[in-house]
Design goal:
- The complex is a heterodimer of chains A (307) and B (304).
- Chain A is mostly helical and 307 residues long.
- Chain A has one domain.
- Chain A is built from 12 helices and 4 strands.
- Chain A has a two-stranded antiparallel ribbon with strand order 1-2. In chain A, strands 3-4 form a two-stranded antiparallel sheet.
- By secondary structure, chain B is an alpha/beta fold.
- In chain B, strand 4 and strand 5 form a beta hairpin.
- Chain B is elongated and about 80 Å long.
- The longest helix of chain B has 16 residues.
- Chain B has 10 helices and 14 strands.
- Helices cover 34% and strands 30% of the residues of chain B.
- Chain B has a 6-stranded mixed β-sheet, with helices on both faces.
- The chains are: A mainly alpha (307), B alpha/beta (304).
- The interface between A and B is medium-sized, with 22 and 36 residues.
């Protein structure tokens, strides 16, 4: 009950904050701009087909089944790779330290509330905010396509809902990381900077750095066209894959492609069971990336002194 | 049974002993003033009472419950106003109190009634739907006081409750403390404002550099102080005062021919009147000069 009370307070203050309104407005504007700029393409896409989707910056690629709805949702969720990470990070970055700074934590803990209820309440409250944001993007996308007169298919709609859950999980990873930072740094400005910086680094910069580091780790490049060069290139790819494995963005991008994966032979969606058997490790890694920082944040907050 | 029992409380911050082996009992139904200069260990003691700080040694029991082992049982029965804190800025005064009231077993009607009572009590009823961020410091402090009273607590713990308040706000806090005492509640409040402690407290504790230097009612503390520091007796006579020779006397000052200020090791008023009567001197006035709380406080602070 206490967790719900704190979660609802957190949700209420978040959605009424200027920060949330601006973030939501920017997100919906981008979704609209993306949809508007490629509306012609959707209208031409009368025959759904399997095509190669390459999310190069995040290191994920695969065959996806392109219906107007799946193509639009893929774009939407790809945009959310960066946007969702930043939003998750921004929401949790001052969850704990701002309460300590302003002294509200002392007021709150003067009431019959356990500390774990405070951190759980904050997490669930912000989870609700993220759920609503992603859901709004999803509904907005469908509404836009309906207004354009683009036919929608049930399978894409259903897979979009699965992608929605994965997207929520992904944003929660960054929420969890930023809550950890809010228990580490005393000043909320510092934790905000570090959290958003981490989100931008992992989504935009890490992919570039990985390529550079992998090349370095694979050793000196042999002359082009030689068998040694092929082995070196394989080595580079292996290192890239290893390095990307610690980045939640890679796992998310991989899972999104798998959710919409297509079969070239049947020219249809690949069975979901198959997609998930391929993506099981990615899902497990996302869960670890969510739970590990939260566990550390939990321990820090539970054992810290609130002076 | 005591309302608050603190036993051998010790808290270190690095090599600094913020609270040093503090033992203190507060009886039920009294107002206890916890006096000390800045950095004396008042807030550390109070935060330890709330379980927000884990002591290195010692234990605290409130209304018979150990604060670390049974924190929820304790917090259900106490109210707490922290120092340098604020309510939630983004919420209105009403929403703030509603949020805190939700932690207790109130029905909807009871909750609304209690919030209304408290907002009226602290003079914020007219601004109940205004966001706290638009409030002045005094209004925020009054709202904090209201949240501390939301569960009608048996023990009210106030850390520097009048800090930053204008005279009207300070008067309101003091009248609420007095009201709580009349209702039989226990109030434990820290302050460095001597007049406030003197006015409100049934019992006083003076803490300096983490150690409890004085404890008791104001009368007891004054007596302890005089026994330690000496008694100051003022005497005025009709005739000229003769040379007074009594064993307890430390020194005598004669501001005029018929007035004397006597510094003695004990209360020698009886012996003095007998001595003067034997000499045929008529006494106009004979009174003991009681030290003020300020005298005691300042001497306690500077005593090594």
């Amino acid at each position: 009950m206490n967790v719900l009370n704190i979660a609802m307070k957190e949700f209420y203050t978040s959605v009424k904050s200027k920060r949330f309104v601006v973030i939501l407005a920017v997100y919906l504007l981008f979704v609209f701009l993306i949809a508007y700029s490629i509306k012609g393409h959707f209208l031409e896409l009368t025959e759904p087909q399997v095509s190669r989707t390459n999310l190069e910056p995040f290191g994920a690629e695969g065959d996806t089944y392109m219906t107007p709805l799946s193509a639009m949702l893929l774009l939407n969720f790809t945009f959310f790779t960066i946007f969702g990470a930043v939003m998750g990070a921004a929401l949790g970055a001052d969850a704990i330290n701002k309460e300590v700074e302003t002294g509200t934590i002392k007021v709150l803990l003067g009431h019959p509330v356990y500390r774990d209820e405070v951190i759980n309440g904050k997490f669930f409250g912000n989870t609700l905010v993220l759920t609503i944001t992603i859901l709004m993007g999803y509904v907005f996308t469908i509404a836009f396509l309906l207004m354009m007169g683009v036919p929608l298919d049930g399978e894409s709609f259903f897979r979009g809902l699965i992608a929605f859950i994965i997207t929520l999980l992904y944003t929660l990873v960054f929420l969890s990381i930023s809550i950890l930072f809010s228990t580490i740094f005393k000043k909320s400005e510092t934790s905000m900077l570090v959290s958003v910086g981490t989100a931008i680094f992992l989504t935009l910069i890490y992919g570039i750095i990985v390529t550079l580091i992998a090349g370095h780790l694979a050793g000196e490049m042999p002359p082009y066209g030689t068998p040694a060069f092929e082995t070196w290139r394989e080595n580079v790819k292996l290192w890239e894959q290893r390095l990307r494995y610690i980045n939640p963005t890679y796992h998310y991008a991989k899972l999104i492609i798998l959710v919409f994966s297509g079969d070239r032979i049947t020219n249809a969606y690949a069975p979901l069971s198959e997609a998930f058997s391929f993506g099981f490790n990615n899902l497990a890694m996302l869960l670890v990336a969510l739970l590990l920082p939260f566990a550390f944040a939990y321990v820090r907050f539970m054992t810290s002194e609130l002076r | 049974m005591y309302a608050i029992e603190i036993e051998n409380l010790t808290k270190m911050y690095g090599s600094l002993k913020a609270v040093d082996d503090l033992t203190l009992n507060v009886e039920k139904g009294i107002v206890f003033g916890f006096l000390g200069p800045n950095g004396a260990g008042k807030t550390t003691t109070i935060l330890s009472m709330l379980g927000l700080i884990i002591p290195d040694k010692g234990s605290i029991r409130i209304l018979g419950h150990d604060v670390l082992k049974e924190p929820i049982k304790v917090k259900k029965r106490i109210g707490f106003l922290p120092e340098n804190a604020t309510a939630y800025d983004e919420l209105t005064a009403w929403k703030n109190l509603e949020f805190f009231a939700n932690f207790y077993d109130f029905s909807k009607q009871e909750k609304e009634k209690r919030i209304e009572e408290l907002l009226k009590l602290v003079g914020l009823w007219d601004v109940k739907y205004r966001k706290v961020k638009t409030f002045s410091k005094g209004m925020k402090q009054r709202l904090l006081l209201a949240q501390a009273l939301i569960n009608d607590p048996e023990v009210l713990i106030l850390d520097e409750p009048t800090s930053g308040l204008d005279p009207e706000g300070a008067h309101l806090v003091k009248s609420i403390v007095k009201e709580e005492r009349e209702k039989g509640k226990t109030v434990f409040f820290s302050s460095h404002i001597l007049s406030e402690v003197e006015e409100l407290s049934d019992k006083v504790g003076i803490i300096v550099r983490g150690k409890l230097r004085a404890l008791g009612t104001l009368e007891e503390i004054k007596k302890q102080f005089m026994e330690l520091e000496g008694y100051e007796i003022k005497v005025e006579t009709k005739q000229e005062i003769p040379e007074i020779e009594l064993p307890e006397i430390i020194r005598i000052e004669y501001p005029t021919r018929n007035r004397a200020i006597i510094f003695a090791k004990a209360d020698i008023r009886e012996e003095l009147s007998e001595f003067l009567a034997d000499k045929g001197i008529t006494i106009v006035s004979l009174e003991i000069e009681e030290p003020s709380l300020e005298d005691i406080f300042l001497k306690t602070i500077y005593k090594r």
